[in-house]
Write a structure and sequence with these properties.
The protein has helices spanning about 10-25, 35-45, 55-60, 75-80, 100-110, 155-165, 175-200, 205-215, 215-220, 230-240, 240-260, 265-290, and strands at about 1-10, 25-35, 50-55, 65-70, 90-95, 115-120, 120, 145, 170-175. The chain has about 300 residues and is of the alpha/beta class. The strands form 2 sheets. It has a 6-stranded parallel beta sheet with strand order 3-2-1-4-5-6. Strand 5, helix 5 and strand 6 (about 115-120) form a beta-alpha-beta unit. Helix 4 runs parallel beside helix 5 (about 100-110) and helix 7 packs across helix 11 (about 240-260). It is globular.
């Protein structure tokens, strides 16, 4: 049982974390802290938090656990604000989609208290944003990746892991470098491609006509382009090096595809499509096998 948690950012990710812990009976008091009073008030109305404040000192005082669930570019400033107020019993974690940059920011902000910060990343979400998008079951059956630091006591890692497990999540561990390389390929690049395609179509002279005939394939491919632009701007810049490598690899694949089309190479196209289909089916079967014993939540 956590007596008090403080959540910076009470939107989809932070709000769902709070709702899940409340539903599990794993926390007594939740304080939401943010920069926008209207958002905090909405989180209070929805029962996501028990107390809303713009005061960092009020939020972190006596907290067992602090979750930073804001765009990653804000993490360093929030940690710097927390640092002089951090109490010995408090563990801090985050929900950022990049980890190497967050670790650097944490070391600068926290100094010799770095051991109280356990980096994390829940692999769940929706294209909707804000407190109204929060779901108590968003994390059920979903992965949460922790990238613990050498300075983290086992008890601090356990506190963060246990909180996510109470939300129904499955906890994994990676290094920060492994995390950023993996998610550049399977999360960050797909988001950039979805944004780029919608922007490309919108900039054509007959965009209205194109959108009129866009159907399920376009909708499925571009669903994630409805995600928060601010959040994905920060992710793209924070993981720029790994993303540039993935964009180069994808550009080479597009060039290969273009070559097959130019040569009218039907056999080559079918071989590429068949391999992609096989790989996707295998991936989905693996996910289904892993989640068969759990109830899928979120999106």
């Amino acid at each position: 049982m956590l007596e008090k948690i403080a959540i910076f950012g009470v939107g989809l990710i932070g709000g769902s974390f709070a709702l899940a812990l409340k539903q599990a009976g794993a926390v007594r008091h939740v304080v939401g802290v943010g920069r926008t009073p209207a958002v905090l008030e909405r989180a209070l109305q929805l029962g996501i938090v028990d107390q809303a404040t713009t005061s960092v000192a009020q939020a972190v005082d006596g907290a067992d656990l602090i979750l930073i669930a804001t765009p990653v570019a804000q993490t360093g400033a929030i940690l710097a604000a927390i640092a002089p107020l951090l109490q010995a019993q408090t563990v801090v974690t985050d929900a950022g989609s990049t980890k190497s940059d967050v670790v650097v920011a944490a070391r600068i902000a926290l100094g010799d208290r770095i051991g109280q910060f356990v980096p994390g990343h829940p692999i769940a979400g929706r294209e909707a944003n804000g407190p109204d998008a929060a779901l108590a079951d968003l994390y059920v059956g979903k992965k949460v990746v922790l990238t613990p630091l050498p300075e983290n006591p086992a008890a601090s890692i356990s506190r963060v892991a246990s909180a996510w497990q109470q939300c129904g999540a499955i906890v994994h561990r990676l290094s920060a470098q492994q995390h950023d390389r993996i998610f550049a390929a399977v999360s960050h690049l797909p988001h950039l491609l979805a944004y780029a395609l919608v922007d490309q179509v919108d900039r054509t002279p007959d965009a209205d006509l194109l959108f009129q005939y866009a159907a399920s394939g376009f909708r499925d491919f571009t669903r994630i382009a409805g995600s928060s632009p601010e959040m994905w701007r920060d992710i793209a810049l924070a993981n720029r090096s790994a993303l540039l490598s993935e964009i180069d690899a994808y550009a080479a694949q597009v060039a290969r595809l273009k070559g097959l089309l130019m040569e009218a190479d039907g056999a080559g196209l079918q071989a590429l499509f068949t391999n992609a289909q096989r790989a996707r089916h295998a991936w989905l079967s693996t996910i289904e096998a892993a989640e068969r014993q759990t109830r899928t939540g979120g999106d």
